[in-house]
Design goal:
About 45% of the residues lie in helices and about 10% in strands. The protein has about 325 residues and is α/β, with parallel strands linked by helices. It folds into 2 domains: about 180 residues, 3-Layer(aba) Sandwich (Rossmann fold); about 100 residues, Orthogonal Bundle (Arc Repressor Mutant, subunit A), CATH 1.10.10. Pfam families: DJ-1_PfpI, HTH_18.
Amino acid sequence: MPMHRISVLALSRVVLFDLAIPLEIFDSQPHRYTTTVCAPTPGPVPSTGALPVHATAGLASLAEADTVIVPGFDPRDVPEREVLTALRGAAERGARVVSICTGAFALAPTGLLDRRSATTHWYYTDELARRYPRVRVDPDVLYVDHGDIATSAGMAAGIDLCLHLVRRDHGAETAAEIARHMVVPPHRSGGQAQLLDRPLPADGGTLAATCDWARHHLDQRLTVADLARHAGYAPRTFARHFRAQTGTTPLRWLTAQRVHQARRLLERTDRTVADIARSVGLGTAANLRTQLARDAHTSPSAYRRAYQGSLRGPRCDSTG
């Protein structure tokens, strides 16, 4: 089988973590993939971190690649016209074009994402949709793969997408082997939600103390009145202040905390789904399944499999 050529396009102020993801994953299979870091101009590339980035090739690398990957960069920057032309040319030639995190802001102005679903880091989904209204931005998934074009959400979702590409190219066993050595879940489906925890109020006062109290009493049946009483507010006043501080309602925040704690127990224990549901105040296994399906687009068993299966990882004395 011929080597699969991957060009990783480092734009100015490239995100180092995003750049490292494809290099770490695809370079682990040197008999299958070759990777090249390229840039509009070969040489030093400014990054978001203290480490220097050196591009060994220019945009001509995109014309020879089987897969082009654009890591995240500062989305306030609009790539030069020659970059957009090179990306379009690679796609028209049949290369697979991929973005990680805010790399979607390099694909969007090329038109490659027009009338397609795509994603990016949750913090920038609204901005991507505003600037490029022809793109169907999905803020609630880890990655979107159309076969020829793929985009991922922020940071670690880039790992999920790259492992997914390996799985497409060489099967689940190869992808799982890479995941084990990286000590990451071997498979999180693209449709799984970006797992965000509802924030605590930022005032650091009564509301924050009440939220902390609630998180330590998730096994109890808590109401808005209970939370308001602890905070010393009337229920309506409490609900108004809470929404102003968190952007959500007390009950939605409380449910998110229950699901968040259930996820942690699924990741770290072998307790039954029913036992976990009771301990976090969700009542029944069926209710936990419903909440996890709604919030993370997955089931308790699939979630536990993904996390516990690979997080056992290889032994430290393993030689590969």
